[in-house]
Amino acid sequence: MNKPCPCGSGDPFASCCQPIIAGSPAPSPEALMRSRYSAYVLGCWDYLRESWHPDTRPSKITPTDTHWLGLSIVNAKADTVEFIAGFKETSKIMALHEISRFAKHDGYWRYVDGDCDVAEAGRNSPCPCGSGLKTKRCCGKD
Predict the structure, then answer these.
(1) Domain encompassing residue 62
(2) Which residues form the YchJ-like middle NTF2-like domain (predicted)?
(3) Does 59 reside within a domain?
(4) Which ranges in 17-99 belong to alpha helices (H)?
(5) Is residue 128 in some structural domain?
(6) At 28, which CATH number?
């Protein structure tokens, strides 16, 4: 099956995030970030915990029922990735804006931590799913 990857890369899941979630090393922090987003969408909680750097890894990951809407990479540098991830909780469209830090550990890129801001998407602001439409004309339609 060649379904599109949840990370929004435009590539099939089987050749994008699936191999990384299955244990292949991510070639870059951006690839790890994309695979972690896909794991949140798909509920791959064990992978999410494993992809965390051991120095900051939580003892467990609590599953959520968040409905993820889309991922937009704002900037990717050597060991940081800035992104916006849209999600829906109850009837609210939200945007998670984070600058994530990554480090290599035992040959694998791992998520260390991030500075994030979560805010409700305004009706006239760009939809956080990355469509380019205003929220009211996209994920915020009633």
Answers:
(1) 13-137
(2) 28-114
(3) yes
(4) 18-21, 29-42, 45-50
(5) yes
(6) 3.10.450.50
* Dist CA 42 CA 139 (whole Å): 19
Cα dihedral sign for 108, 24, 10, 114?
negative
CA distance 115 to 99: 5
Residues 34, 119: Cα–Cα separation, whole Å: 21
Q: Are 82 and 74 in contact (CB under 8 A)?
A: yes
* pLDDT at residue 142 is higher than 80: no
CB 31 within 8 A of CB 20: yes
Q: Confirm whether 127 is domain-assigned.
A: yes
For residues 80-118, one letter each, b for 16 or more C-beta atoms within 10 angstroms of the residue's C-beta and e for the rest, the string is: bbbbbbbbbeeeebbbbbbbbbbeeeeebbbbbebeeee
Give the CA angle between residues 55, 58, 59 to the nearest 5°. Answer: 115
Residue 119 burial by Cβ neighbours in a 10 Å radius (0-12, 13-18, 19+): exposed
Q: Is residue 7 part of a domain?
A: no
Q: How many domains does the chain have?
A: 1
